[in-house]
Each structure stands twice: as structure tokens, then as C-alpha cells.
Amino acid sequence: AAGWIGMKIATYANVRVSNKARETKSIGETVKVAFRGGSVMGLCVGGFALLGLFLVYIIFGIGMGLMSIDAIMNGGIFTQCLSCYALGCSIVAMFNRVGGGIYTKAADMGADLVGKTEAHIPEDDPRNPATIADNVGDNVGDVAGLGSDLLESYVGSITSGIILAAHLFIASMATTGTLSEALLEKMFYYPLVFAACGLIACVLGIAIVLFKKGSDNPHKDLNTATFVSAALTILAGLGATVLIFGDASVADALVGAGFQVGMLSPWIAASIGVISGVVIGMIAEYYTSYDYKPTQMIAEASKEGAALTITQGLAVGMKSCMAPLILLGIATFASYAVAGMFGISMAAVGMLSFVSTTVSVDTYGPISDNAGGIAEMSGLDPAVREITDKLDSVGNTTAAIGKGFAIGSAAFAALSLMVSYLYSFNDPTTPLELNFTNPLILAGAMIGAALPFLFSGMLIEAVAKAARKMVEEVRRQFKEIPGILEGKAKPDYKTCIEISSQGALKEMRVPAILSIVFPLVAGFLCGPMFVGGVLIGATLSAIMLAIFTGNAGGAWDNGKKYIESGAIEGQKKGSPAHDAAVVGDTVGDPLKDTVGPSLDILIKIMSTVSLVAVGLFSQYNLLDWIMSMIK
Question: How many angstroms separate the CA atoms of 108 and 91, rounded?
């Protein structure tokens, strides 16, 4: 629902942005229209996610009495309901991200390879048969895809926090008994309350930008929304924490729950997540914005040809992996140190608590991009296109920031879900641990680490197949329909849209099925410990691969934009350096818009499927049966 509403509003906002640019010739006023359209998608993501969770609470938790202590101790049906809700979000996100990524990049690559490189016509030119499919793809992949991706992370982090609270209570009852029923009830509600505080903070942060006087610096306005939302989330979360955990009845039980800094422990962990989310976005901006050296070096390398463009982009992508991983490692350890395992889940909730603003800022990008396409196809004043191009260049940076945030939040959400998974089959009387000297776990980690590469290869091949068909169709139309390039005949846009749609639906099947079926097959063959190894290996591998592909692709894209801006003397559109940069951009397109975002979904859906099915393959798996026969 959030994705559908977001796409619907984005298509309305596209036209309004180009019209506002035509009427006012003001960057500040035009930014507001684009951001207002993006805010609908952002607030829908946060609102619908919380609405679904509230319904699960009301129907299953309160209405059916599944949140009672007896129900939690005897089977935990409520936590399984939450896991299934998260699984439903994951399946839809997989469809939108993988299918949308294949759709949009098949159209984009087809339009660029023939239109720009061969026919030398401008981007979004109506003479290009793939132009409409390309613009539709921006909405499918970058609006609905991103929204469903972050909605899934949002739901996954909240549900894993609640599930962890239940498992911590069960473990406490089996050992020390220090985690009281009163504290458990508060831990059940806290992730949801903190997320609600974040949603309210996002409404205020977005409103401040929309109602303030517009400026000619769109990037500053968008950053204002992010920083204000993050700061208000931390402040509102502090108030909620004092209200929930300030009760004297739970004071003695806080240390038993792993709260090392008293009642403020979960708030500190969540604040670590909020700050980490902002910093990860800043790191992504450094490596992908043409205001900074890494992307400028790619543009300079393009003067020597496409080979060096590709090589320099690969170097930037690889180097960009280090800083986010260090940050995630520090955040994970710090959140655990202050609030135990519950702190890790709260760090994930904190990072995603201002997701509405993040999605709003990121959705601004495709809206501005499509507005530029509408201006080009409508033959509006070149000054209008200049305004939309400036908004689009900022949108490319916000898109890279959004992808970096999506990757970081996916890592935290997957880690939180993984901890919940490990608790699900761990003996509550023993400490939680995963011993990597166990050959079964090590084998699982090795296979899991290879899985993201197989998944990525499938996606790149899928995009290549669909793009090849698109290229053939565009060439056919240029050859067989006289007058297209002269603007005397109208291209057949519908056929190109059908090629992208059919290619996406056909090619997404195997990768999507693999992500769901693999943990089930691994569990029923080798048991839960093996799957635990698979999840850890896949998560670590996918995080690094997603950061690499996302930042390399974003840097290639903005390297091309840097040349187009005229920043390199003697190089502009149509120059040899620009042609080399277009090749780099085309190579990076499936990496940043298909592979990177889809890897986020892979690790989350594998963790969620494993969490839902762990009760089955803990009891029924082939390896245990073989070992029992041997004994």
C-alpha cells in the first residue's frame, strides 16, 4: 500500500515540479514541491509499518491474549505472529526491489546505450523509444523499491526487539529470574513507542523544511530535514524512556536485563543507532558526491578512456567499504555494552526511527529526475531544464545517501533478527554463543559468504538479458520507423515498456526463490547451527558487496554529472571524456540500482525466513537423523 500510494503521488508530483520550475524559475520553490511529493512516500512508510504492528498487537496480543506470561513461556505464539508479519513485508520488498531494479535498469541501459552512445541524442529525449520505460522505472525502483526496502527493515528491527525481549525473559526465568514481568511488559512496548516518537519527529522535521523560506541550496534544505528529524527523535525518545522505565517497580530488574546504565540504557543504544544512521549517510555522500575528491578522480580518469574510468570507480567502491564497517562494528559493540542483546535491537530501531525523513529525501531524487524528463519531452524553456538538472544532481547524491542508509540499516536489522534466531533454538539455561571452531558453523559461514555473489551474478545477468532485448528493440525502431530521429514520427513506447515489465517478472523468479528456499533447505538438511553460520557469512559478505556496488555505481554516475557540469576544462557532453564516463555510468547502473539494494533484502529475508521456520528444522533435519542412526 505504501509503495502504491508513493508511486501514485510521485507521478503527480513530477508534473507539478516541472510546472513550478516553469512558473517561478526558482530553485527554492521547486525543491519544496519535489520534497512535498517525497514526504508522502516517507510518511506512508513509517505510518503503514506502525499501523500494521499496532494491528498485530491489538488482534493477536491483546484480543487473543497471546501477550500473557503463560503464552510467552509456552510456545510464544505472539512472537511468531510478529515474525510472520515481518516475513510478509520481506516478500513484498523482494518483489519491489528485485523486480523494480531489473525493470528500471533494463530500460535505463537500453536508453543510454543506443540513445546517448550511438544516436547521440540527449537524455530523456522523446525520440528515444526507451525514454518512457526509463522514467517509469525510476518510480518502480527508486520510489516503491526503496520504500518497501526500508519499511521491511523498520518492521524487522521493531519485531526483533520485541522477540528478543521475550527470549531474554524466558532465559531469565530458566536461570536467575531477575527479569521481572513488569519490565518485560515495558520492553515489549518500548521499540514501538520509540519508533512512534521517531515518526512524530519526522513530521516536524519535514514540516520545518516545507514551511521555511526556500533557498537556492537544495542539499542544505534536505540535510536540515534529516538532522532536525534525528535530533527530535533522540529528544522525544528520552522523554518516552523516562516515562516507561522510570517506574520504581522495575528499577531493581534493569541490571538483570543487561541495562548497564540504568533506565537510560535502551535510549543510549537507540541514540547510537540514530547517530550511526546519519554518519553512514555522510560517508556515502563523501564517496559518491562530485563535491568530493573520490568522484572527481573518476571524472579526471575519464579523460584517458573508459578503462581507467572503470578501474578508478572500482577502487573508490572498494575503499568505501572500510569506514561504514568500522562504524557498524563500533555501534554494535557500544549498544551491546550499554544494554546487552536488547541494546543491539534498539540500535537497529534507532537507526530506522527517522526512516520517514530518509525516504522523503531519497524519493525527492526520482521525482526531480522525472520532472527533468517531462521538461525535455515537453520542449519547455531550457531554463526549466537547468533547474530540474540541478535538483537531479542533488537527487543523485541523496539517492546514494539513501542507499548507504538502507545498507547500514539492513545490516543492523539483519543482525538483530539473527540474534533473535539464535535465541529461538538455544537452550535457555545456557549462555548464547556461536562457536566458529564448530566445523558445521564454519561450513555454513563459508557457503553463506558465497551466496550474495551468486545472487548478485544472477541479478546482473538478468539486467543484461533484459537490456539486450531493449537495445535490439530501440535499434529496430530507429531502423524500421522512418522519421524518428528527425522528430517526424512517434516511437513505439509501449513495446519497450512491455520488454522491461516481462523481463523483470521473468528474471526475478530464480533470485527471489533462492533467497526464500535456501535457508529452508539448509535447515532441513543440516539443522539450525548450520543455518546460523549461513546467516552470519551471508550478512557479512552482503554488507560489503552492497556498499561496494552502491558507492561505485553512485560515484560513476556523479563522475559523469561532474563532466557535464563543465567542471573539467575542455570536457563537456559529447567529448571523449564524457563518452568514457557514460560507459562507467552504464556499468554502474545495475550495480547501484539492482544489486546493492537487492542484497539488503537478501540478508533480511533469509534471517526472517529462518526465524519463522527454526522451530521446524530444529526438530526435523536430515543431519540429526543421520547422526542418531550412526549412534
Answer: 25
Report the 10 Å Cβ neighbour count for 77. 16
The H-assigned helical ranges of 253-321 are 265-288, 293-301, 306-319
Give 471's contacts (C-beta < 8 A, 6+ positions apart). Answer: 109, 110, 113, 114
- Which residue carries 530501440 as its cell? 474
Tell me if 594 sits within 8 A of 546, measured CB to CB: no
- In a 3-state reduction of DSSP, which class is residue 330? helix
Tell me which of 141 and 272 has the higher pLDDT: 272
* Alpha helices per DSSP H over 60-145: 69-73, 77-94, 100-110, 131-139
Largest pairwise CA distance in the chain: 82
Which of 296, 310, 302, 283 has the alpha carbon at shortest distance from 552?
A: 310
Q: Which residue has the cell 526435523?
A: 620
Closest CA to 413 of 196, 38, 93: 93
How buried is residue 475: exposed, middle or buried, by Cβ count under 10 Å (0-12/13-18/19+)?
middle
The whole-number pLDDT of residue 326 equals 93
Measured distance CA(555)–CA(475) in Å, rounded: 29
H helical segments located in 212-256: 218-245
Between 468 and 408, the higher pLDDT residue: 468
The predicted-structure confidence for 131-184, as pLDDT tens digits, reads as follows: 888 888 877 777 877 788 888 888 888 888 888 888 777 777 766 666 677 777
- Of 369, 358, 357, nearest in space to 10 by CA: 369
Could you tell me the pLDDT band of residue 316, with boundaries at 50, 70 and 90? very high
Q: How far apart are CA 584 and CA 297, in angstroms?
A: 13
Give the tens place of pLDDT for each residue, 13-60: 888 888 888 888 888 888 888 888 888 888 888 888 888 888 888 888
Q: Which three cell numbers stand for residue 162?
A: 520485541
Task: Work out the mean pLDDT of the chain and round it to a whole number.
Answer: 84
Nearest to 593 by CA among 131, 20, 146, 11: 146
CA quadruple 570, 573, 578, 579: dihedral positive or negative?
Answer: negative
Please check the confidence at residue 424 and state whether its pLDDT lies above 80: no
Written as one string, the DSSP assignment of 420-460 is HHHHHHS-TTS-----TTSHHHHHHHHHHHHHHHHHHHHHH
Q: Say what the pLDDT of residue 319 is.
A: 94
Q: Which among 420, 433, 396 is positioned nearest to 592, based on CA atoms?
A: 396
Q: What's the full length of the chain, in residues?
A: 631
pLDDT over 90 percentage in the chain: 20
CB contact at 8 A, 295 and 584: no
Residue 289: DSSP 8-state: -
